[in-house]
Amino acid sequence: MKIKCNIKIIIFTVVLLIFVSSCYAEYNGQIKSSDEMPIEWNSSECWTVLNLEQNKEILKIQNLNGDGDKNITEDNLTYEVRLYEVNFTAPGADIYYIIPWFGKEYVAIEDNPGKMSSIIFQQKENDKKRLTENQLWDLDNGYSLKFQSSPDGSTAFVTLYRNESELISGVANYANNMTFIGKENIAGIDGAIFFVTHIDSVFGSVNDRTAIIKHTWLLDICNVTEIEEGNAFGSLKVQNISGNSINLSNFEEINLIANDKKYFTDDWYFETFSSGNSWLIRPGKDNTEEESADNNESKSIEDLNISLMDDLDESEANFSTTFKEFTDENLNNSNLETNGKDVYVEEIQNVASLPGFTSIVSIFALISITFMRKRQ
């Protein structure tokens, strides 16, 4: 009876693992086969969690050399990013350009792909801020906004502060659609737009004015990244900056080892899975600080799992070992096709390397064990 129960537990957990592996690999790219060259990943295939504009960030392996371990010779790994336009939501404001850069999105200052900065504050299209006259509105990173109104409410005087010092001020009135657009010299570019806000309405008594503010958009002009031709990022070097794109390629050979990770920047890597002459490859990147914080929170869950496992009888407490032996034996004995279609087995083999995987496996293992015990 106990043997049958253990088999049921194993089967049930394998099904759960397949489901978890398909949902959880959000910071790894799609697995692709080396049988079809070149291998290319667009934005959505690299980092599905980011929802980047498709085909605006392209990573490509042109060719792989070597009979055993593989290597990417010079200029055979390329990385290209392209600008795409986004409409301002504020009336009277036109467009700005976004550029993906190593898995993140930045604003290309005045359409210049080599000069980029982050949006540090942005109201959604339907967001509204109710602000009393002369009240400071904290916009984050030391920026704050204040408005004053003319007696009839037809003109608003807008002031933007940085660390309590006035950065820029201007007027929003009917002539400019009640939208103030702030411009500044940023990284040597004169008249670059970095701030937009719209006064939707002003009401109240002369001594107690209140404004409804919408469509506020603010660029961090104190932290501008400038990219130049020849700059190196790990094994990649900037080869060309054109009017709407940046192109990089590897300036040194990148050696890939079977069933291992190889970094080609500080936090980007290729992960390889080999089966005979065929290789499966996917790009990956290390967790951000925010992701690491999420993983740290999962430690308390793992501790809880350990204490709960102690309450199980000996055969069930050894479940994880039994499952590992079961999967290792069956996967190693399988003659599987690796033509790019049957890659789900490789996902199971390598899903244990995903962040927080231990916690998820433990939770589902406990669920399956509890379920089967109740069925006995």
Topology:
Layout: H1 2-24, E1 32-33, E2 39-41, H2 43-46, E3 57-61, E4 70-72, E5 77-82, E6 84-87, E7 95-101, E8 104-108, E9 115-117, E10 119-122, E11 129-132, E12 137-140, E13 143-149, E14 155-162, E15 165-173, E16 179-186, E17 189-205, E18 208-219, E19 225-226, E20 232-233, E21 236-241, E22 245-250, E23 254-256, E24 261-263, E25 268-275, E26 278-285, H3 289-309, H4 314-317, H5 319-332, H6 344-350, H7 357-375
Antiparallel strand pairs: 1-26, 2-3, 3-5, 4-23, 5-22, 6-7, 7-8, 8-9, 9-19, 10-18, 11-18, 12-13, 13-14, 14-15, 16-17, 17-18, 20-21, 21-22, 24-25, 25-26
Structure description:
By secondary structure, this protein is an alpha+beta fold. It has 2 domains: 2-80 and 255-375, no CATH class; 119-222, DU1608 C-terminal domain (Tick-borne Encephalitis virus Glycoprotein, domain 1, Sandwich), CATH 2.60.98. Helices cover 24% and strands 40% of the residues. It has helices at 2-24, 43-46, 289-309, 314-317, 319-332, 344-350, 357-375; strands at 32-33, 39-41, 57-61, 70-72, 77-82, 84-87, 95-101, 104-108, 115-117, 119-122, 129-132, 137-140, 143-149, 155-162, 165-173, 179-186, 189-205, 208-219, 225-226, 232-233, 236-241, 245-250, 254-256, 261-263, 268-275, 278-285. It has a 6-stranded antiparallel beta sheet. Strands 6-7-8-9-19 form a 5-stranded antiparallel beta sheet, with no helix packed on it. A hairpin with a 2-residue loop joins strand 20 and strand 21 (236-241). It is elongated, with a radius of gyration of 27 Å.
